[in-house]
Design brief:
Layout lengths: L3 H6 L2 E5 L7 H4 L8 E2 L2 E2 H10 L5 E6 L3 H11 L1 E3 L2 E4 L2 E7 L6 H7 L1 H4 L6 E4 L8 H11 L4 E5 L7 E5 L2 E6 L9 E6 L1
Parallel strand pairs: 1-4, 1-8, 4-7
Antiparallel strand pairs: 2-3, 5-6, 6-7, 8-12, 9-12, 10-11
Length: 187
Amino acid sequence: MMKQNLNSETPVVILAGGKGSRIVEYTKAIPKPLIRVNRVPILIRIIDHYKSYGFKDFIIATGYLDNVIKNYFIKKFKKYKNTYHYNGSNIKLIFTGQETMTGGRLLRLKKYLNKKKYFCLTYGDGVSDINLNKLIQFHLLHNKCATVTSVRPPARFGYLNIKKNLVIEFGEKRNIDARGLMEVFLF
């Protein structure tokens, strides 16, 4: 069993700065991490999942619609200095740029992570049911600089095999064609 204190000392970075362009009908006015699932924003569901494993320090890397995320936290949580407090956890909102990509956002958080031995990272829509204790055990056992989890989403469409403008084969959805989506990172 993983020591609870390692989790409580390990910060969780949540990347919440992207535009959510695949669901632009929702994300014009609200950032993707604040979209509600059963009346609870995705971002809070992610935080709650990590909290259930003893994590308590969160860094949210904002960008697109940064002001909407900040206003949400201002309305919902108490703030002391530059940290919001939510059910025993500490949450920092750090603006990492409007157009910054994943690696750039992480680089802009370097000063918040320098003194930490490990940190977790996930996307602002990275809802999962992964056992985080087992993930950390796996990471420590393999002694690598990073561990990445992924899921293979179910295929959404049937397929066509076309040669010389002729359909030579068609069939139902095949999961083997679907690429894995990255979910949770551990450094």
